[in-house]
């Protein structure tokens, strides 16, 4: 079948396609159509992270991450090739959205005949077709000629080969103005400009300007009808994707039968189509009445195309929102899925606009199958995938990972590798992981560690048997009918809230647990033996006092764990609630005697209810395996051996684990109004030096803005001052404080936790199950995006526009 035309058919065609955002020189690392010969690899180009299903094997090792050049994906230099073909969307982006240097961008200087010269901003203002590229050594290019001029041309001056401003940059500036004026008068440049104008007009109004619609009567109506025929299939796939409904069954091939019940082995997709037919969907009925066997568009292949198109649309909308925000942070984590593949999840944190207010957003971008799990390999995967989606990696301002060496290593970790490319990308250790580590490290106190083990063993004992679960529920109904808890919670290593909640629940159900273990211990066999052993452990005052001690702090750490996982929290807010908890811990430590008396009293009251004797271990001259304090009472002993060591360990861990975040925040806090009023511009020196490239101004300009910013808040009551970056940003007028606004946007973007990245693993486990443990990355990312990003609206018409880009039996191109 003859290939369908698009607006770009007015211009020259080539045999290869590129994706300009795949890598630094995406032209060299682009995906090639199957019928085209492999493109030679440019030695300076970085290796892209290709889909694992493509079966591509790199013959040579990838370059070091530090050598990956962070050029903008929309730098016009990506298109400077004579043997590539762009689709309409790429041409439009290159014409309208090409990267343009900022007003204060400093062009590199070159030496010409003993003088220093450079590209000038007024060149860009004078010639609208001119744009600057940092690639190919840096220089000016004519975007019209790059995109639309032929490789060779002839005019009244004779045969001409394209050169400066088309295949080579304008990087000699002694006669730059003369060169630009001469180029503006060349015939091939004028022709290219006219083609650019026609393309933009055709792109914006495709149906009315398409030549085929003018020549073929009724074609536009037929195309609209064809597009409507595919709407039911697209809506059905979107429904299944949003609701996490499996699409396919065991028999999903062939035409859709007229039987309303259908084949019992068919999947949900075909069942839902049959349901639409029963509901009177005339468009679907007409489409399926007399279809060609190779053009029904209900196959698994077409479902995958819809999923892939939807995923790309969702990611594109997210990327456009991130581009508007400019600065963003990357949150990443890695896990192994059910298909035994190592999946790297990537989430973005940025400032967005909603109802005339700025809000913080953390969104899932995509999964990436990784094989190289070293710091360099993971960093390369992150950077390549960000470029593939069209994001400028130079705008990364924060990194959020867990504390494993591959991610956080100061020399060869991911954060170090990315900072070698983007020095402003500050690394922050996930605050939730820090809290979890603080709790884990505090278990070095022996009685506390034993209590953790007992709680875990008892929870496992009950969860391993349905009859034990029912027995516990019956005891709870008898002895604690007012409790909303009916089952014990396990100590989860990743769900931090559950770990704290487990101790709260265990204490609340302690009496029913004891009565249930007493009953089970009377049963012969392994269950009775296990219950008897656990009963003796639980009915020990050493365990009880440790449990009550842990629970008294778990009730304090539980709200902290919940608050740290909020997406709208910034580092200043996080440190504020951490410092609040730390101050409470220090206060309890200072009043350890009176505070522990309450804890000891609760434990004593419960021990009396189950007839447990309260006594101290014997004291000997030399003890190696337990605390050996010389005290006068059990309360003094347990306060000295359990309570005080545990609270000291928590204070030490809270102080040390949050130190890096606290130090980074201390350098940035001077623009938060709460701290601004007590600061001077001298405190801003380090900030100005670090973010000088983002500010693009002299130090005196920032000084003036800071003084005005401080004056604005000096008379405002302290209790009404903004205390975090996002509130300060919403109180900042961009026109009045442009540089302050930039810094506040960066500060708000800095990550707090990787909770958003961790949550995507829950979606991964829902999608990759034992029923379907293998699927392509495109399908996985499309389904995950639909499941997680439900607030990103995607219409069937938008999906159709993407599907229409590929040749089909049905004419879908307006």
TrEMBL record:
GO terms for molecular function: protein dimerization activity. Residues 1-70 are annotated as: Disordered. InterPro entries: DUF4371 (IPR025398), HATC_C_dom (IPR008906), IFN-induced_PKR_regulator (IPR052958), RNaseH-like_sf (IPR012337). Residues 42-53 have a biased composition (Low complexity). It comes from the Eukaryota. Residues 735-791 form the HAT C-terminal dimerisation domain. Residues 1-12 have a biased composition (Polar residues). Residues 242-411 form the DUF4371 domain. This is 52 kDa repressor of the inhibitor of the protein kinase-like. It comes from Galendromus occidentalis.
């Amino acid at each position: 079948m003859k290939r369908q035309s698009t607006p770009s058919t007015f211009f020259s065609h080539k045999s290869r396609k590129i994706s300009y955002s795949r890598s630094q020189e995406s032209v060299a690392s682009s995906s090639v159509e199957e019928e085209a010969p492999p493109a030679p690899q440019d030695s300076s180009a970085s290796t892209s992270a290709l889909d694992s299903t493509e079966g591509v094997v790199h013959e040579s090792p990838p370059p070091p991450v530090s050598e990956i050049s962070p050029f903008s994906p929309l730098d016009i230099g990506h298109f400077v090739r004579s043997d590539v073909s762009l689709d309409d969307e790429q041409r439009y982006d290159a014409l309208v959205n090409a990267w343009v240097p900022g007003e204060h961008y400093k062009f590199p200087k070159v030496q010409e005949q003993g003088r220093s010269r450079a590209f000038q901003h007024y060149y860009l203002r004078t010639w609208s077709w001119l744009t600057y590229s940092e690639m190919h050594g840096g220089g000016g290019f004519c975007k019209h000629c790059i995109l639309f001029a032929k490789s060779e041309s002839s005019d009244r001056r004779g045969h001409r080969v394209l050169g400066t401003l088309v295949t080579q940059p304008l990087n000699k500036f002694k006669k730059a103005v003369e060169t630009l004026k001469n180029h503006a008068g060349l015939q091939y440049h004028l022709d290219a400009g006219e083609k650019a104008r026609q393309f933009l007009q055709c792109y914006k109004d495709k149906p009315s300007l398409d030549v085929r619609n003018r020549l073929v009567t009724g074609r536009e109506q037929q195309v609209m009808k064809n597009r409507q025929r595919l709407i039911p299939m697209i809506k059905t796939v979107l429904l299944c994707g949003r609701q996490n409904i499996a699409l396919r069954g065991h028999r999903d091939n062939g035409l859709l039968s007229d039987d309303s019940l259908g084949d019992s082995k068919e999947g949900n997709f075909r069942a839902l189509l049959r349901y639409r037919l029963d509901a009177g969907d005339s468009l679907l009925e007409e489409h399926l009445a007399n279809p060609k066997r190779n053009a029904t568009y209900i196959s698994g292949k077409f479902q995958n195309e819809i999923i892939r198109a939807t995923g790309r649309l969702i990611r594109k909308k997210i990327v456009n929102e991130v581009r508007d925000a400019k600065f963003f942070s990357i949150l990443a984590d890695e896990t192994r899925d059910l298909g035994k593949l190592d999946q790297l999840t990537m989430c973005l944190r940025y400032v967005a606009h909603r109802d005339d207010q700025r809000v913080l957003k953390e969104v899932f971008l995509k999964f990436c199958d990784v094989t190289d799990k070293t710091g360099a390999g993971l960093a390369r995967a992150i950077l390549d995938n960000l470029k593939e989606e069209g994001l400028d990696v130079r705008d990364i301002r924060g990194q959020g990972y867990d504390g494993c060496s591959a991610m956080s290593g100061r020399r060869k970790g991911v954060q170090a590798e990315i900072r070698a490319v983007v020095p402003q990308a500050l690394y922050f250790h996930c605050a939730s992981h820090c809290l979890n580590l603080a709790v884990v490290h505090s278990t070095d106190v022996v009685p506390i560690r034993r209590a953790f083990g007992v709680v875990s063993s008892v929870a496992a004992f009950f969860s391993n048997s349905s009859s034990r679960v029912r027995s516990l529920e019956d005891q709870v109904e008898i002895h604690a009918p007012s409790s909303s808890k009916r089952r014990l919670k396990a100590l989860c290593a990743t769900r931090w809230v559950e770990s704290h909640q487990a101790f709260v629940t265990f204490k609340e159900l302690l009496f029913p647990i004891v009565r249930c273990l007493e009953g089970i211990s009377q049963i012969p066999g392994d269950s009775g033996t296990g219950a008897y052993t656990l009963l003796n452990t639980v009915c020990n005052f050493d365990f009880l006092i440790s449990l009550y001690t842990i629970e008294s702090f778990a009730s304090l750490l539980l709200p902290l764990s919940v608050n740290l996982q909020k997406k709208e929290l910034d580092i200043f807010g996080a440190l504020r609630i951490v410092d609040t908890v730390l101050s409470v811990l220090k206060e309890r430590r200072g009043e350890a005697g009176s505070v522990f008396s309450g804890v000891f009293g609760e434990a004593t009251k419960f021990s009396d209810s189950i007839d447990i004797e309260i006594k101290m271990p014997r004291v000997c001259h030399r003890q190696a395996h337990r605390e050996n304090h010389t005290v006068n009472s059990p309360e003094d002993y347990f306060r000295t051996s359990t309570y005080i060591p545990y609270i000291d360990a928590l204070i030490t861990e809270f102080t040390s684990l949050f130190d890096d975040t606290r130090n980074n925040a201390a350098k940035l806090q001077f623009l938060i109004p709460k701290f601004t009023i007590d600061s001077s511009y001298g405190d801003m020196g380090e900030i100005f030096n670090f973010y000088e490239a983002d500010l693009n101004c002299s130090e005196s300009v920032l000084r003036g803005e800071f003084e005005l910013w401080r004056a604005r808040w000096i008379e405002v009551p302290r209790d009404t001052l903004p205390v975090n970056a996002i509130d300060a940003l919403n109180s900042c007028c961009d026109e009045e404080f442009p540089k302050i606004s930039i810094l506040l946007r960066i500060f708000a973007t800095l990550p707090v936790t990787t909770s958003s990245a961790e949550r995507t693993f829950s979606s991964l486990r829902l999608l990759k199950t034992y029923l379907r443990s293998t699927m392509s990355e495109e399908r996985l990312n499309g389904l995950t995006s639909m499941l997680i990003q439900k607030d990103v609206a995607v219409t069937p018409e938008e999906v159709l526009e993407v599907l229409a880009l590929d040749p089909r039996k049905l004419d879908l191109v307006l």
